[in-house]
Every structure is written in C-alpha cells, then in structure tokens.
Amino acid sequence: MKTALSALALTGALLGTLACGRKDARPESKILPKVAVSLVPQGSPEGGAWVAATLQSTRTAMLSTRMAAQVKRVLAQEGQRVAAGTLLIALGDEDLQGQLKAAETGLATVEAHHRRIQALQAQKASTLSELEQVQAQVAQAQAGVSALRANIAYTQIRAPFAGVVQSRKVNEGDFVGPGMPLLELVGEGEQELVATLSDQESRGLKPGAKVAFESEGSEGEAQITALAPGGDAATHKGTLRAKVLRPKGLRQGSFARILLPGAAGPQGLSVPRSALVQRGELTGVFIAREGHANLRWISLGEGAGSFLPVRSGLKGGEQIIDHPGALQDGQPIEVSHGK
C-alpha cells in the first residue's frame, strides 16, 4: 500500500512539473513597433518601358524549287557571302534536258515546214488555212520549249540578291519536292527591328517616330516604318517595324529591346525601384492602408530610369511606401509628410 501511494505521489509531481513547463514555454505574441514611413511621390514616371524585339534584315528569302528532283551540288555554305545571281544549289535536270532536246528538234521540224508552206503560199500553191495551221503548230512548239527551259531554270537555285547564307536545309543526294525549303538568304543591307505591342504600348507611336534600342551591348536608334493595330485573336497585339539608323552591321536574329518613351504598364501604372521588395523570385511593394503596411506581390515590365511599369498587382490610387527597408507585413506605420 505504501509503495502504491508513493507511485501515485510521484506521478502527480511529474504531471505538475510538465504542466508548469508547458505554461512557462507558451510563446508570447510579438508586437511589431510602429515606424514612420514616406510614400512614393506623385508624378509621371520617367524613362519608358522596354519591349522585346528581333533584329533582322529587311531582305530575307527562303529559297525553294517548284521541281521534284535530287540535289546534285551544293555550292554555298552557312556564313558565305554571295553576289546576286550566284548559283547556290544545282538539282538534277537530266530528264528535263532530254525533253528539251526533243522539243527543240520538234520546233526545228515544224519551223522548216512553216517555211515551205510560206514559199508555197507565195506561189499560190497552198491555202490560207494550211498556213494558219502550221503557224499554230510553230507557236505551240515554241511554248513547249520555253516551258522546259523555265523548268530547267528552277533546278538552278540562284541568289535573288546579294547577301549571306543564313542556313542550308539540304545536302547533296537529298531528294526535294516543290516548295521544300532549301536555303535561307539574308541581305546585308538595311536592318529592322520587329516587335509585338499591345494597344497600350503602341499608344502615341506613329510611323516616322524614332526610338532607342539595345542589342548585344550596343545602344542604337531606329525609325518606325510600320505600326499595325492589334489583330491577333489570342494576344490582341500588333506588329511594329523600325528601320535601324545606327549602328550598322549588327548580327541578324539577335535579341533586342526597344524603349517606348513614356510608356507604362497595361493599366498606366509605374513604381520606383526604391519601393520594391525582393523575396527570392517574388517582387512586391508595401501598401499603406489603415495605419498598417501591407505587402503586395506585383508583376513588372522592363523599364528605363528609376521607374518600372506595372503589369498586374496594383490599382490606381493606392499609396505605395518608398524605401521600405526592413518593414514587415502588417507592421503599424505612421506616414511622414515631411519627405
């Protein structure tokens, strides 16, 4: 009996100790201190928004043929500069050459017959219908020869203009068909930037206006040559083309960025870089609301200067806290109007 009472007393003491331990270990609620903050000054954003673009030549051709034939010779390689009219690819034309010789022989025969009929007609020894018939035969034979010569020309793939071979799609021995891409040729002359813009981004732009751009670490200037309205059913964006004024000789196909002056996000909103908060891959700002700082994640576009366009996450009229420092979400704040 004494042993049982001792065990019960010991158990009670342990339970009491654990209960006191849990009570002492209860965390106290942390109260964030109230801090003074300043808001983003009102005003129009400086700089503008960047949009992605591609640098390309104003003259680009993907060469193909209308004939089904085997590639006989490839006379140009990637990166090779060629003059206008240079033979680039030769296709097999043996069958066509044989047909051409037969057609030329037929033409020579019918032309000889035509001369005899003309001589007889001069002597009143043939009828007018016979002369008209042989004239039609000559015209038909000439058309056949011309068609075969044109088809043979399609087996000779030549450069339509001076440029650089951008890519070669076939090798010797390949069999190609009508319309199959054989070789891409890019002109070395003028270059242009091509970009897709939303209605908001293209607002205020017009053909003839000049824009700044960046590509491969080089800064340049381009002049807008075409600005199509948003006609894409999926993106509702249009196309901008701008002729490169300077610098010259940039690499074809390079990525570029065009600076749209004074542009902002889709809702016309911008925020200064000094107000941004970075948490890993997320970007946000603190909004001053009812005496507290509320962290808001936002999506940004590319911009120049100290302002960046806002794509989503903000509404017009919200008060953004500038230079948030170590501010925490939900922290009490007092707006300072002295800055």
Describe the structure.
- The chain is an alpha+beta fold and 339 residues long.
- It folds into four domains: 35-45 and 267-335, Beta Barrel (conserved putative lor/sdh protein from methanococcus maripaludis s2 fold); 51-58 and 189-261, Beta Barrel (Elongation Factor Tu (Ef-tu), domain 3); 66-90 and 157-186, RNA polymerase II/Efflux pump adaptor protein, barrel-sandwich hybrid domain (OB fold (Dihydrolipoamide Acetyltransferase, E2P), Beta Barrel), CATH 2.40.50.100; 94-154, Helix hairpin bin (Helix Hairpins, Orthogonal Bundle).
- Helices cover 25% and strands 36% of the residues.
- It has helices spanning 2-25, 94-122, 128-154, 199-202, and strands at residues 35-39, 48-57, 60-63, 69-74, 81-82, 87-91, 156-158, 163-168, 175-176, 183-187, 191-197, 210-215, 218-227, 238-246, 255-261, 270-272, 277-279, 282-289, 292-297, 299-300, 302-303, 307-312, 321-322, 333-335.
- Strands 2-11-14-13-12-15 form a six-stranded antiparallel barrel. A four-stranded antiparallel sheet has the order 3-10-8-5, with no helix packed on it. Strands 7-6-4-9 form a four-stranded antiparallel sheet.
- The radius of gyration is 40 Å and the shape is rod-shaped.
- Residues 1-27 have low confidence and may be disordered.
